[in-house]
Amino acid sequence: MPDVQYDPDQRLWLLNTPSTSYAVRLDDNDDPRHVHWGTTLTLAQAKELAARTSPDGSSFDTAGGPEELPVEGGARFGVAGLQVRFIDGTRGVEWRCAGHDAEDGHLSIHLDDRHYPLRVTLHYRVHDDSDVIERWTTVENRNLSDPITVQRADSAAWTLPSGGEHRVSHLVGAWNSEFRLRRAQVPTAETVFTSRRGMTSHHANPWLALDDGTAGEEHGEVWSTALAWSGSWRITLQRDPAGRTTWTGGLGHEGLTWSLAPGETFETPVFAGLFTTGGFGAASRVWHDYARRHVIPHPGESRPVLYNSWEATGFDVDEPGQTALAARAARLGVELFVVDDGWFGERVSDHAGLGDWTPNPDRFPGGLRPLAAEVHRLGMRFGLWVEPEMVNPDSDLYRAHPEWVLHMAHRDRTQMRNQLVLNLARPDTAAWAHAWLDRLVTEHDIDFLKWDANRPLTEAGWPGHGDPDRVWIEQTRAVYQIMDRLRAGHPDLRIEACSGGGGRADLGIIARTDQVWTSDNTDAVDRIGIQHGFSQLFPAQVMGAWVTDSPNVATARRTPLRFRFHVAMAGALGIGGDLARWSEDELKEATGLIATYKRIRPAVQHGTAYRLKGDGALTAVGYAYEDQFVVLAWCPTRPFGHSPGALRLTALDPGASYRDQDTGAVHSGAVLMRSGLPLALPDGDHASVLVHLVRIGS
């Protein structure tokens, strides 16, 4: 069972995961203070640490040690994770402990304001099969008549041990270049990571990794956190002049204010964290395992090989064309056929039709059922692209309900991609969205939805509503509720999360979807870096990765079909090229590579991932699964006359031997780990290789 211990004398709590400990205490003023997050401690050791007092500073310094949820009030000058204002204008809080509860690994510490009817509960949850600690906060207005104004309500704050030259790793990007890993020394200052877009965003991700300044892929102390929220968010990292590093994070961005009604309780999303001594690779593997055990809806399933018609047809979608593509896809061994944008309403471009979710009668005279039936007859599942949160002004829906979009009085309605955002926080709009989705899935035998969202929020208001800023929060909650309700009504339905590519990828969205469309950029060279960043938090099982045409539509780069396949095989494999233009040789090669992927799929999607680095531009990922170890290695470029050396592997049994399933060669596990695996890379740039090793004995 998960372990939560309490010492009443020091008012100290100790939470233990399989490999780590986390300790928190109350000081004399009932302020919750951080004690320890790191290697395993006994309760006696935690008490010894808790007994140490923070050194006194000057009259210009913050008093006391780091808080579990920094607030306003008193001698506090750092970032406040909780900001409230009471009806009489008073700001800040003064705590009085109201007890705690601990059951099945869930610790709740209740704190009341000493004068006002405010209760805040700090939640901690540990599992017996993971080193991830889940934290969140509830804020309750216990007044019977007056609201409380909330200006900030973070989920949690985290603290590193004092000293050391800490570094921060984070993800940056933009559309078509998401999940680019950056690593830098933490400055003595406040550093803000945020999205003000109403979505997770392409530009930043609510995941961080802090290390002791010396960590590598397989060694060193790493502390990592991730916020389970798909709307706007903010994480503020602070290093003070004394060398203490803390960060606080939660939903929303600066400037938002909402009311907590009398009797209302507000619950923040989970802000989860982990500690490891095994470097960045070990941190990622803990995240992957946690996602499979506690987040992803169907972790035991293998994601099917899909075909998506977008790059083949664009908006020129009709039944004969899709039927012909489906026949070719089935020949390759595809298991899921997905019709992308353009099947509905007057959708001949991105200027019109969004919101009118009925099949275009000219393109699909009998609706979608004949196509769905043919796809099923061919032995594939049937999927469809939708964008439920958006509407074109040139649509029947908008003409009937212009009030249904996010907007503000006396302000222009900003169009991006010729569309506006529906206000799903409105009960009538949300009910409409669920109703057409439910009807569409039921009437057309749909197995899979590619759920897209192609623009951020602007003019996020709700004229006439008494608490308009709340829409920033309720919009995301409404998306969650519609997805949850739809899946509950259709247990066999599977969903891919998409937001113009990787604009909405976080622990919140993957709790209710089955995979994420990683990026609209399918260039294999660019994808190596994108997928490397994505893998810091997410397992390969949820990483949608396509093979598309050469030259690539985004970059015009030409790459071999084998190289494109080997890069995409590192995740949930998809095909997105125009199969009508593929030669018979290409179709034959693709058929063989898809068959190979199905052979290694259990290892890729359910195995333990290890990021590997070779000479020069050579990188690879290895997947350990049962008695198998699968290597996908890529070398985008190399100087003339340079051939990368052998690739050193990890996670093998040094006393065992391993047979290459394709060549029959037998290798010693010890040799593979010490001296590396020789790679039969083709000559030239854009070279790649797949090696499938199986243990044959010790």
Automatic annotation (TrEMBL):
GO molecular function: alpha-galactosidase activity
Hydrolase listed as a keyword: yes
PANTHER family xrefs: ALPHA-GALACTOSIDASE C-RELATED (PTHR43053:SF3), GLYCOSIDASE FAMILY 31 (PTHR43053)
Record lineage: Bacteria, Bacillati, Actinomycetota, Actinomycetes, Micromonosporales
Family named by the database record: Belongs to the glycosyl hydrolase.
Glycosyl hydrolase family 36 N-terminal domain ranges (all copies): 31-261
Entry superkingdom: Bacteria
Protein name (record): Alpha-galactosidase
Gene3D superfamilies per the UniProt record, alphabetical: Aldolase class I (3.20.20.70), alpha-galactosidase from lactobacil brevis (2.70.98.60), Golgi alpha-mannosidase II (2.60.40.1180)
GO terms, biological process: carbohydrate catabolic process
Alphabetized UniProt keyword annotations: Glycosidase, Hydrolase
PROSITE patterns: ALPHA_GALACTOSIDASE
Underlying gene: galA_1
Known EC number: 3.2.1.22
